[in-house]
Design goal:
By secondary structure, the chain is mainly α. Helix 3 packs antiparallel against helix 4. The longest helix is centred in the last third of the chain and has 85 residues.
Length: 243
């Protein structure tokens, strides 16, 4: 994995650790999504879900391209926006061809705001939450107003298809949570090390400051002694002149 990160993230290795962690998280999401999409290409082909085969194959290619966008220095905000947009469009396509409001893929829309908060922050997450919320109600409306809703896959494997989709959703959330947790732990560890370094430097500065204060005190005392000796000598000189 180190060579993998060095290849794609060499532009971020000497930047702030928080920026590097965000780039690594974005790259990891591209990698995980591409792997899961490739897996579902085989599943979709097995159940004769042609629309899913095309969509998931496209995702494998697109998320591979997103990884190279990161490598060539495209801003992470743009890459993460493309990631979220493509993920949302893919989910809409698959839901449309797999039963609308009763589609097993519909819960994947809830995954979009989660990814948004990890890749772009709370503001983006709220925006995508609204978009997904609207999409769900749109599917509900279409389901009510459309008389003939077809599922474009072999229904003989429907139970296993549901199981695979839900398991995949759980698995990808778990993997991303673990990656995010590891990144957060690394950031906290780095901050702790920096705080310890700052504490050590402050202690050294305090020690040096105390030494300087002590030296100044000694110099002031010596100055007072020299001044007193000078006054004493001046008094003696006056006495000698009087005599």
């Amino acid at each position: 994995m180190k060579k993998f990160y060095n290849f794609f993230l060499f532009r971020y290795q000497h930047q702030d650790y928080v920026v590097f962690s965000q780039a690594r998280l974005t790259l990891n999401y591209c990698l995980i999504t591409a792997i899961f999409s490739l897996l579902y290409v085989f599943i979709a082909n097995f159940i004769d879900f042609r629309e899913s085969v095309i969509t998931m194959s496209s995702l494998v290619i697109l998320f591979g391209c997103f990884a190279f966008l990161i490598r060539y220095g495209v801003p992470l905000k743009i890459v993460s926006f493309l990631i979220l947009s493509v993920s949302f469009i893919a989910a809409i396509i698959l839901v449309s061809f797999s039963g609308m409001i009763y589609s097993s893929i519909l819960p994947w829309l809830s995954f979009i705001p989660l990814i948004a908060i990890l890749l772009q922050g709370k503001t983006a997450a709220y925006s995508w939450l609204f978009v997904c919320f609207f999409a769900v109600f749109a599917f509900a409306y279409l389901h009510e107003t459309t008389s003939n809703i077809e599922k474009h896959y072999n229904k003989d494997y429907e139970v296993w298809f549901y199981a695979g989709v839900y398991y995949g959703l759980t698995g990808i959330i778990l993997l991303l949570s673990m990656i995010f947790q590891k990144a957060k732990d690394n950031v906290l560890k780095t901050l702790e090390e920096k705080n310890q370094l700052i504490t050590t430097i402050n202690h050294e500065l305090k020690t040096k400051n105390d030494e300087i204060i002590t030296q100044n005190t000694e110099l002031n005392q010596q100055k007072e002694e020299i001044k007193a000796q000078g006054e004493f000598i001046e008094i003696k000189n006056r006495e000698l002149l009087i005599v």
